[in-house]
Amino acid sequence: MIKKDKNTEIILKEAKKLGLKAKTIYPKRNLIELTKGSRKFLIQQNFRINLNRFGTRNIPLFKDLSYFFWQKNNIPIPKTITAFSFPEAKEGIKKIPFPSVIKDARASQSRNLWVNIPDLAKAVSILKDLFFNSSIEAVVIQEFIRAEEFRILVLKNRILAIAQLVPPCLIGNGQTTAKGLIEELERKTNCTITPDQGMKDLIKSQGFSLDSVLPAGQKLFLKEYSKISQGGQIQNISPDKLHPEIKKMCLKAVKTVGLELAGLDIMAENISESPKGQEIRFIEINGRPDIYIHHCPDKGEPANVAREILKYIFKL
Q: Which domain holds residue 174?
């Protein structure tokens, strides 16, 4: 059953006259596929007609659409469900193993993101707050993946740059408390780091508190995911280090959602090794990726990706 608004009704009426077949392939977003022979196009209620198979402007806006197309094309993702209401989320989360991740299906830059959720009670509390105390439309619930995090910048059929994203952490000196080291990290990175309850819980799980003096060389993580705005580190890695099979997967993941330029976030144990025998998962795709992280890494050689993108746009 295709849900119609006025725009969709007109499009479908004319499509039928032209001998096109219409099929709703993702009902929750009213995503409709029009086909004639081998040619396929997508339309989406209240959005522009996408003039290619994959809806290049719309799919990356919604995390659930990216996951939907990745699953259809055998791109490995974490176990995932999408919910558009609290009852649906409360029931669906039972299908996802803990620890889990909850995120706004449309938010970006780590907004409305909770990771390493330990149990059902905590998850339900987060979901209640999201659905009843915010304007959120839908949530994505996933299993929590423990691995190294990488941002891979893709342009057409090329890997332009790779950055390993390291969660913000402190290094003890045997004299300063964790709270003092956070203040030093703020001054060094020009970031504002707020020790919220999640951070306090993570610090406690590592055997410390904000008042603890960290032994010399002791590493203490402040987040369980990369958070550049709160002191996370960027380490550039040469694209030559990427295993050929993982490269193929990355190019396919970007092509699947119809983009030419994209930033892929993936979790992997080692991107230089074969994907076989290791857990590798595609986490997100960004159609407007940050490029500064590749120009200004904390470690590794800078990559002038802006130049390469401009050369591509202007065919230089």
A: 169-222
